[in-house]
């Protein structure tokens, strides 16, 4: 799902070298100009909080367009025919699918609901890629009817798809390859791929357009090398009479949330002394990523002249970024409902309760922590205050920030905490109406004359 944890791991014995401070070192997030404008506006966040009546998410789809253009520019510089499919599971906001339609990107979907939602926002059927294992017949039929590209995960699915379509309108197919030595439950082995090639050759209702894979983690070299192997598979498939002109390398393009020095300082000093109740986690998402997004795509294309091999063999490269297309495109806002003082190692810290749950930050439900510091609004002078953030539920484990974040002043009831850069997987991949609390709405910001914002609620 793109939620791989890596990079920052707890070192054995870290507590033995713990800093004296119970406050975690700061992890300030990179902020886009639109976010700075939002935070600097003296009224907008407060008005939105009043209007929404609870926690809410903010989306800025113009940033999605910027990210699409950056990936396309990487393809253009390399002289490669490339296609972008937004991994819709990363965020269901309608405004993101609309931004994809407006900027010429496709969408990667895995259900009838996601497919119809993308169509409703103007994404054309041929610009959809349909992924996921053992897809239902309804999804396969609808995708084929719209001319979508279908990544087939197993032989049984390929048989069912062939029976649902006709030679007059053959289904467009990629065969998903299981990477060597992978323990994934997705994809086909080399033997199964050969059987699938034979089946495609025997069924006029299937048009084999290429191969796909997905790798966990964020290794550019591994992606480039496996893409090279899939080029060879395309060439072999062509000898059997299949067009085979596309290789999809999936997603896994990293996002850079915080500066390198902050990530290094955090990793060097991290220990239980920084966390409420001595909480600890085994690993975290790599919140500092030195070569993120489109720059990582360039790394992949440059390795072993993958770009040249794609050009020479007339192979199109498809990518399926989710988090990376949503980088810096949204944030999540909570209102402080209460607070109390607690002590650790004889030192005081604040324990806040906000008006939402950690279901809106996702990482807690993957036994990890969302590390970029929340921004306390409004900004006022004060004394740096170690602060943990709890949720408005009856679960002791429901914490938005276990770590004692160094807020710039003591938070007060009615203040807002803005968690930055949450559009990619954080906002809604695990949300539910727990305690019968409503799922936080999404507010969409649009630029208006005079450096103002106009806003509306998202249609998702």
Question: What would your notes on this structure say?
Answer:
The N terminus is likely disordered. This protein has two domains: 163 residues, Lyase, Ornithine Decarboxylase, Chain A, domain 1 (Beta Barrel), CATH 2.40.37; 230 residues, Alanine racemase (TIM Barrel). It has 460 residues and is of the alpha/beta class.
Question: Would you kindly provide a brief summary of this structure?
Answer:
This protein is an alpha/beta fold. 29% of the residues lie in helices and 23% in strands. The protein has 2 domains: 26-59 and 329-457, Lyase, Ornithine Decarboxylase, Chain A, domain 1; 61-255 and 292-326, Alanine racemase (TIM Barrel, Alpha-Beta Barrel), CATH 3.20.20.10.
End-to-end Cα distance: 20 Å
Provide a count of the helices.
12
Q: What's the CATH H-level homologous superfamily of the largest domain? A: Alanine racemase
Strand content: 15-25%
**Major β-sheet, in short?**
9 strands, mixed
- Count of distinct strands: 19
Give the second-level CATH assignment, the architecture of the largest domain. Answer: Alpha-Beta Barrel
Low-confidence stretches: 1-19
What class, by secondary structure content? alpha/beta
Specify the overall morphology.
Answer: elongated
Estimate the helix proportion, in percent: 25-40%
CATH hierarchy class name of the largest domain: Alpha Beta
Q: Which whole number gives the mean pLDDT?
A: 94
The CATH topology of the largest domain is given as: TIM Barrel
Number of individual domains: 2
Rg calculated over all Cα atoms: 24 Å
């Amino acid at each position: 799902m793109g939620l791989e944890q890596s990079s920052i791991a707890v070192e054995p014995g870290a507590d033995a070298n713990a800093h004296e401070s119970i406050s975690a070192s700061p992890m300030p997030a990179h902020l886009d100009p639109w976010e700075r404008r939002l935070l600097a506006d003296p009224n907008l966040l407060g008005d939105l909080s009043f209007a929404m009546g609870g926690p809410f998410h903010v989306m800025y789809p113009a940033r999605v367009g910027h990210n699409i253009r950056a990936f396309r520019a990487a393809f253009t510089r390399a002289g490669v025919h490339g296609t972008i499919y937004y991994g819709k599971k990363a965020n269901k906001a309608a405004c993101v699918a609309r931004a994809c339609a407006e900027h010429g990107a496709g969408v990667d979907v895995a259900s009838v609901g996601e497919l119809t939602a993308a169509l409703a926002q103007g994404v054309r059927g041929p610009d959809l890629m349909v992924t996921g294992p053992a897809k239902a017949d309804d999804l396969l039929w609808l995708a084929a009817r719209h001319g979508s590209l279908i990544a087939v995960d197993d032989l049984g699915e390929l048989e069912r798809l062939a029976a649902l379509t006709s030679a007059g309108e053959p289904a467009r197919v990629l065969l998903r390859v299981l990477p060597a030595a992978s323990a994934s439950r997705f994809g086909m082995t080399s033997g199964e791929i050969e059987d699938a090639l034979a089946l495609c050759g025997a069924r006029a209702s299937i048009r084999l357009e290429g191969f796909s894979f997905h790798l966990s983690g964020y290794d550019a070299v591994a992606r480039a090398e496996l893409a090279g192997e899939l080029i060879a598979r395309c060439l072999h498939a062509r000898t059997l009479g299949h067009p085979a002109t596309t290789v999809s390398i999936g997603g896994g393009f990293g996002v850079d949330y915080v500066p390198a020095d902050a990530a290094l300082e955090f990793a060097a000093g991290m220990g239980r002394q920084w966390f409420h109740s001595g909480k600890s986690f085994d690993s975290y998402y790599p919140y500092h990523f030195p070569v993120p997004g489109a720059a990582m795509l360039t790394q992949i294309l440059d390795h072993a002249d993958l770009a040249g091999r794609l050009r020479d063999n007339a192979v199109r490269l498809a990518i399926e970024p989710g988090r990376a297309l949503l980088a810096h495109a949204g944030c999540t806002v909570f209102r402080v409902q209460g607070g109390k003082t607690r002590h650790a190692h004889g030192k005081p810290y604040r324990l806040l309760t906000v008006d939402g749950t950690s279901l809106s930050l996702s990482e807690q439900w993957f036994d990890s922590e969302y590390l970029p510091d929340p921004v306390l609004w409004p900004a006022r002078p004060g004394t740096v205050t170690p602060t943990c953030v709890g949720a408005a539920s009856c679960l002791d484990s429901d914490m938005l920030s276990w770590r004692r974040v160094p807020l710039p002043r003591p938070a007060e009831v009615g203040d807002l905490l803005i968690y930055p850069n949450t559009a990619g997987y954080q906002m809604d991949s695990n949300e539910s109406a727990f305690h019968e609390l409503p799922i936080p709405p999404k507010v969409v910001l649009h630029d208006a004359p005079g450096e103002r914002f106009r806003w509306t609620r998202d249609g998702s």
